[in-house]
Every structure is written in C-alpha cells, then in structure tokens.
Amino acid sequence: MSGSVVALDVGGTAMKGALVDRYGALLHVESRPTGRERGVDAVTEAIVEFAGALADKSSASVAAAGVVVPGLVDDARGIARYAANLGWHDLPLADLVSQRIGRPVALSHDVRTGGLAEGLVGAARGCDDFLFLPIGTGIAGAIVLNGKPYAGAHAYGGELGHAPVVPHGEPCACGQRGCLETYASAAAIPRRYMASGGEKVSGAEEVLARAEAGDALAKAAWDQAIDALATSLASFSQVLDPALIVIGGGLAEAGAKLMDPLRTELASRLAFRPPPPLVLAALGSQAGCLGAAILAWRAAGEATAGADWTPYEGDAA
C-alpha cells in the first residue's frame, strides 16, 4: 500500500503531527499549540483542523489517521472519555477526525501507544513483556503483555504515577496521598527542593546540577525521587515480572545519573530475585507519533505495520 498516514500526538500544551509512510519514515513533521486555555470546543477544533491540514499536505493518498491523547480512552469506540487537562468528556474524537479527512481513524492513549512503538521499533524491540515509563511533568506507564499494550478492565492500566509509594504522604492533584508522581516527576523534584528551603530553580535538571555541586537539599530531593521510583518499580516487578523496564520522558535525559542509582536502589529492594534490566527509551518525543502511525496503518488494513520498520537506535545507558 503506497501513500502515507496522518499521525497526531495530542499533549496538554502542544500537539505533534506527522505524515508517515508505510515503512515508518517521517515525511513531514509539524507542531501546534493545543490551545487548552480557550476551552474544550477550541481544543477539539484545533485537533480536527490539524489532522485535516496534515492530510491536505500529503502529495499522495492518505490511507488513514492515528490520534493519541492523554486521559481515559475507549479505543474500540474511538471515544476520548476523559482528560482533566483538556476538559473533555466522552468526546467522539475518531469520528470527528474521520469526517474531516474522509478516512478511517484509530484513537488510543498516548503513553500506551508510545509503549507499542518502543516495543516494535525502539528500546524494547523483540521483547513481549515490558513496562514503558515516561517520566515528565507527570508519570504514566504502559504495560505491554504478549506484545500488546494492556489497558485494564476500565482503561486505568499503567497509572503508576498515581500508585502510592509513601503511606499518608504528600497530597496529589489526583486526590490521593503519597503518589509516585508527587515525589518523582520532573515537576515534583524542583517543587519539593524549593519547598524544603532550596533556591529557585527552573527544573529537575538544575536540581541535579546543584546536587552534584554539593547542595544537600538538592541531593535530598533527587535521592527521594530515586527512592520513590525504585519502590514503585520493585512492586511492579514482583507483581508482573517484566522482562524489561524502559524509562523515557524528560527526566530520562539525565541518562546514567538517573539510571545508575535507580538500578542500584531497585536491586536493593528485591531480595530473592534479580531486578529486570532498566534501559533508556530510544524514540524520545517521536514515540507518540510513531505509535499513532502504526495504529493508522493497521486501521488502513496493514495488520503487521511496525513489525518490519527499521529500528530506531537510542542511548540505553
């Protein structure tokens, strides 16, 4: 099948879009603001218009589109059920995009789809059972079992960011207390550092730099994040015994400074079994779009899309 598909990765503040050919090549890449400050109707219009604009740019026939979004998603019905940051409830997004481009549209969850892409062309290529854990402003995971992302009975599968790691700990925006996201996300680390008396910083990278320079408060905030992550991953490892854990997101840019202590702390929490290998994600910010493209080609009838694509090589430090 020739031509291309539209791949759209919708985030809380920005959307990444691409035209992708049958072999996974990115023919055109573009980004636009989500515009959530203008309300849910404006966000919906922006998504539909962006998908349409991408389809219009294709020099060949567009076969289908894949759209991935945060929150709760009903993949089978093509409905974006809920997203706190974007304000929608039970939005028939697949139908709306399909009406605009006149082609089939696959809708799915952004992190689960990123996990699909990492498994087919990224750091987990050839591995059927693994956890993909992007650590950014928030934390959400993709559980991949037998080569397929697992959503769970009610589409909550993979929400490790809201699994408590500190009993009766800090309140989380989700309404619970002690959630992993509250201690170990790229947003939580600088917030907790400054709340403990540290100087104003712009992000987790600066906290790490201060920790390496001898700032005791920065080291405490960084170490607490590592501890929280190790505790969460130890519990996950005992329950599902993954063959691999893939760490992605903005925090993964710390490389060995994150991965080395995390490996050590994870191993220390597993007394009778070896820890699963920890590797860095290979696809970076392309994971969502590549996963969306795989779903789009499958919606167009290419059932094995992604399996024969050229693997993307990343730093697995």
Please give a structural write-up.
By secondary structure, the chain is of the alpha/beta class. The protein is built from nine helices and 13 strands. The strands form three sheets. It has a five-stranded mixed β-sheet. The protein is globular and about 55 Å long. The model has no long low-confidence stretch (mean pLDDT 94).
The N- and C-terminal alpha carbons lie at a distance of 37 Å
How many DSSP-defined strands?
A: 13
User: Helix count?
Assistant: 9
Mean pLDDT across residues: 94
Per-chain topology:
Layout: E1 4-10, E2 14-21, E3 26-33, H1 40-57, E4 62-69, E5 72-74, E6 79-83, E7 88-91, H2 93-101, E8 105-109, H3 110-121, E9 130-134, E10 142-145, E11 148-150, H4 180-184, H5 188-195, H6 204-212, H7 216-240, E12 244-248, H8 256-268, E13 278-280, H9 287-299
Helix pairs in contact: 1-2, 3-9, 5-7, 6-7, 7-8
In short:
With 317 residues, the chain is α/β, with parallel strands linked by helices. It contains nine helices and 13 strands.
Name a few traits of the molecule.
317 residues; alpha/beta; Nucleotidyltransferase, domain 5; five-stranded mixed β-sheet; 9 helices; globular
